[in-house]
Design a protein that fits this description.
Distance between the termini: 25 Å
Number of domains: 1
Strand order of the largest sheet: 1-2
CATH architecture: Up-down Bundle
Shape: globular
CATH class: Mainly Alpha
Length: 417
Amino acid sequence: MGIKIRLTIMSFLQFFVWGAWLITVGDYCFVTKHWTFEQFGMIFSTLGASSIIMPALTGIIADKWINAEKLYGILHILGGLILFCIPQIDNPTSFCWVIFAAMICYMPTISLSNSIAYTILKNNKYDVVKVFPPIRVWGTIGFIAAMWTTNLSGSKASAGMFYISSAAAIFLGLYSFFLPKCPPQKLISQNASLAQKLGLDAFKLFGTYKIALFFVFSMLLGAALQLTNMYGNSFLSDFEKIPAYADSFVVKYSTIIMSISQISETLFILAIPFFLKRFGIKQVMLFSMLAWVLRFGFFAFGDPTGGLWMIIMSCIVYGMAFDFFNISGSLFIETTTDSKIRSSAQGLFMMMSNGFGAFLGSYGSGWLINKYFVANGVNDWRNIWLSFACYALVIAIAFALLFKHKHDPNEVKNVQH
């Protein structure tokens, strides 16, 4: 089996594991368990809390001590076993801790999968900028396949979605042991400093203004990403409370509607090489931030009938909002860091976006919505989404003014070396 096909399977399963439950866990908590926004915010914040330390830590381990593909496999198997246990939990606090354990295993595998793909492609003399996006797009297809599987199998908002995810995670963990070897990049010499021995070299990147600023905006934008993952499906399902929309396609198949977002991702991922070479890193990331404004704004005014086009447009612009920062950001780290700390640097990127950012977005939004946007059991979705749109707009303006980066049409070629 060819290298690209093997990495494509890895990418597909990586996000199938997540897609099986991420978008519908809100319905599981609100509808099946009847928990509050604040309790759900606490539960969802575990994605962020687990990403604050684990991706950077596992990146260090992969850079220094153990083959990345082996570490990747171990984490998926452990995570799959924990996911299998989740449906047995009924207390929101206990549920939070078990989800946290599963996410400690899963979240670092996202950055590890990037590092593994980059390493294997480079070792086989592939042009990473051209070859990686078409491989990564199969991760999005895997996410879509998982969402459809969950919805059409009747597992939406039920224990079944965790069992589907568990099976995929354990299979991927076993599969990863048969990937090409990705040994540590650097042997530890006896003369190495304490920071080098502990694998903390990558944290020096915070001393570089441009990269440090990039990490700050990664955190702020990471908060925005969590908002639609948390509330998008619940927002659409909530139209069931309005008689005129109760039997609409949007309500019955909310997960499939939300999957339009991931379908859009597949197109925008393939467009990334063109946009990077044409507009450069800064402009592409700015496009992402403005797309988040549209994502939230369209949701604010959409509905299942006359406003259906707005819901669909929100899902379409999501592809640009997500891909243009996450994939381009990953490539930015790849082009601006030393190969010896590259796994660690990817881990730091994950720590800031899916770690501190996710925690900020999850816990903060849960508290905010519960305090200001829920009255007599009714959720004020329009103002919820408009407040999120304003947040994204402020970030975009600040990024345009503060992040200085001169576009070089050849900059992305550095990824190949």
